[in-house]
Amino acid sequence: MRAHRDVVVVGAGPIGMVAALLLAESGVTTTILEKQTEPGDLPRAISLQDESFRTFEQIGVADALKAESLLDTGSRYFGLGDRLLLEARPTASRLGHPAKTQFDQPILERLLWERTLAHPDIEFVRGAEVTGLVQDEDGVTVSAVIDGASEQITASWLIGADGGRSFVRTALGIELEGTTQPQRWIVIDLANEPTVRDPFAEFHGDGQRPFVLVPGVDGRLRLEFMLFDDEDPDAMTTPDAIRDLVVPRFRDHLDPADVRRAAVYVAHQRVARTYRSGRAFLVGDAAHLMPPFAGQGLNAGVRDATNLAWKLAEVCRGRAGDRLLDTYEVERRPHGRSMMVVSRRIGAVVMGTNPVATRLRDATVRALSLIPSVRSFLANMRFITPPDYSAGAVVAPEDAALDGVAVGRALSQPAVRDASEKEGGLDAHLGLGWSLLQIGGDSQPAVSPFWDAIGATRVRVLAPGHAPAAGEVAETTPVLTAGAGPAPTFVLVRPDRYVAAVFGAAGETRVIDTLRTFLTEPSPVA
């Protein structure tokens, strides 16, 4: 019997490894069980958002991944006759990372795999096939075949990160709610692309065979084509069929060695009925499956792992209980479902083949684009809405407010300068746990020892032009300090960089009293 651990994670895809690394960075002993013995080499997901990079920065892989990614990309939507209907690029990120990036999943998996293997608080068990799962009020026991022998792994908590065909989800009896779209697509990933393309994903709804084109760096290119009902998936993935799709429209000739992957898929639109069962939780594709058209699948999974990891860490420290853990589903399931709906709607626009419907689609998009507010909404990709956790583990504001800071929303990450004159993002000064920022005010007033009890890092944020001392940073351009008054305003930031509370000195007691309903351990320190 292996040593009892705080958390066992089933599945070492990107989401499972992100969850394990975040837990381990917080001092939580973690075992991760993975059937494969090497990192995945298939280029599945290809789109990342700024929030995912924010998490990757916390676990130390952001810079290496950016070096091999196509940063600051947009999307173009084409209609009949390959006429451009809309060009969209996300609004400039306020989180300190590119708003949208095209990346290569094998590179991400290798970076995460190496970091997971090297982490002293992670027991990484490869070649482990999970065969059973039981739980009681004290913990979970996972049965697995490891190196041909049956073993049992015990832990206080379990995370199911084992993909769309999740064994954990099935063992827990959790159903997926939703549908599967009837259209099938073939995805072809190519290497050594000779054409230098603009940094845009292209969605071509030509009314004949809709397709998607996504460029990458170092000669990578993804092509996806919708299949017709009478086309056989096996026949469409043969070298001859792939060549017919690619040549001559996209290449003069195709070397078979340049085909990294060719596979047929159907897009599911499903969300787990619940994300939690007792001491077990679902993240990533185990919790939700969505069409690829909005590029949200992996990003939603990273958000899941980031949201759940800090809450489990608080529980493992003895500072929280079920009320905090229950906010995982409250915060994540609605947004996961929302992104699934957006992905489905984008797919419906692209996949039309009816001549009347596609002409009507093109005319509607052109007409709507004449309305300035609608054109701005579409061109800035504001249909990809960020999460709002205001119904979760936060404190509603009453006595204070700051421009651009919203409770339940991600904290902006401005560029700042510290006492040593070093410039960088604010996140580097926040640590891995809670943070208490002071905005405005001449000096930091005395605040409750509650903040020390929860391990909050205190940082005073100064307006541009001020000289920061130890424990202070000055913004290079006004972001958080914009509109701040002479009295101090405090911003409590959760470990996942979401704003938990905004308050003035007079509101501190109320905020602490509400937080104590989520965080139980610090209550004796008034």
TrEMBL record:
Annotated protein name in UniProt: 3-(3-hydroxy-phenyl)propionate/3-hydroxycinnamic acid hydroxylase
Spans through the membrane: 7-24
Signal peptide as annotated in the record: none
Record flagged with keyword Membrane: yes
UniProtKB keywords: Membrane, Oxidoreductase, Transmembrane, Transmembrane helix
Top-level division of the source organism's lineage: Bacteria
Name of a matching Pfam family: FAD_binding_3
Domain FAD-binding span(s) in chain numbering: 6-340
NCBIfam families tied to this protein: PRK06183.1-3
This protein's record includes keyword Membrane: yes
